[in-house]
Amino acid sequence: MSKSTDLIHAANRVPASAKPLTLPIVETTTYVFDSAADVVAYNEGRSEKFLYTRYGNPTVAAVEESLAQLDGAERALLFSSGMAATATTLIGLLEAGDEVICASAIYGGTLHLLQDLLVRFGIRTRWASAADLTSLGDVIGERTRVVWFESPTNPTLRCVDIRRVAEACRARGVVSVLDNTFASPLNQQPLALGVDLAMQSATKYLNGHSDVTAGVVAGPAALIAKVEKARRLLGTILDPAPAYLLGRGLKTLAVRVARQNATAQALAEAMSRDARVSQVYYPGLASHPEHAIAQAQMSGFGGMVCIDLGGDFDRAVRAFDRLKVITRAASLGGVESIVSLPVLTSQWGYTDDQLRAAGVTKGMLRLSIGLEEVDDLLADLNQALG
Ligand SMILES: *Cc1c(COP(=O)(O)O)cnc(C)c1O
User: Is 109 touching ligand 1 by the criterion CB < 6 Å?
Assistant: First the structure.
């Protein structure tokens, strides 16, 4: 063999004796078959082999397996973003003429996907208030196929009775999907509460280091198979390198979430004793309107806290601009504490009426609590509010 030919093949030979402690990043687009019989076995679903990385990859599959276990699901699928997970799930489950009931307190990307894009393919959406979700039996129609909702919601962390929504859907043969991004599976287990599919932006708590964009959907094999078929065709699978990073982030999920829960609780309690703060929204506070529901369905109340400075935009902007440790940025769930002004991000462009309907004021600051010392975060908030 010539040196040039050998160079192409030699680097692909992994020593069989190597048994790495950590997950190898399998950077390959395609996989080797030993024979035509091998290909036939794959085609007929009689083999565990991989064919092509747009369909599946060992690094991605290893992290999917770990996420399926975390959610108590038969299977989980990874995507290149939370939005890729949402879009692929909806496209996989729906056809023209079908209706989605979507909570109006929902991630902005999900809202626009349904309102601006999927509507062009004949998929209609009915928007459901929190009250509609508690009496879903009256809202579900002939063509309703999917109910999509969140709990806790952004930015006011209101909680929906998840068991109740799931039961109403099951009674009518409608697929329920919970976007569990804000809680994370360690604080809330959607499938155990009766929901059909649990979706998350893995960009947030699951990866937890603000350096990977990814999404996941977990649930029973039969539903996941429909979503997987759409993922193959849309090409929305996650790449192996970010899948490795996500797998690495997952190793510390439990310690991160425990610490974020504790810091958020302490900070929410301190803020609710502060006269400069008119209201604190945190499911772990007895004053939270759905505290009892949160207690019944969450094992921890999460790392998101929202405070209101009397509805006063100028005061909110002043505090926002003065924060030094807590960083001004979008997103959430990372090791660094982050602050955003909902009226400039998730509720940007809302009219006063729309803000009122969403329960959002111009004086709100949304905090995503990271892993810093609680005293440093409190001191930062204290000087910013001063
Ligand atoms: C961020 C987020 C998404 C979208 O996830 P991406 O990874 O940004 O695509 C969906 N739902 C919620 C609740 C989110 O916070």
Answer: yes
Compute the distance between CA of residue 230 and CA of residue 33 in angstroms, rounded to an integer.
Answer: 25
- Among 182, 200, 201, 211, which residue has the most ligand 1 atoms within 8 Å of its CB, making it the best to mutate? 201
How many angstroms does the Cα of residue 177 sit away from the middle of ligand 1? 14
Euclidean distance between CA atoms 218 and 160, whole angstroms? 20
| Distance between CA atoms of residues 104 and 50, nearest Å | 40
Cα separation, 77 vs 218, in Å, equals 6
State yes or no: is 204 an active-site residue: yes
Structure pTM? 0.97
| Residue to mutate (ligand 1; options 80, 81, 86, 203; most atoms within 8 A of CB) | 203
**Cα–Cα distance, 100 to 175 (Å, whole number):** 10
Which CATH number is correct for 36-250, 3.40.50.800, 1.20.1600.10, 3.40.640.10, 3.40.50.10490? 3.40.640.10
CA–centroid distance, 201 to ligand 1, in Å, is 5
Give per-residue pLDDT as tens, 320-340. 999 999 999 999 999 999 999
Q: Give the residues of the chain that fall short of pLDDT 70.
A: none
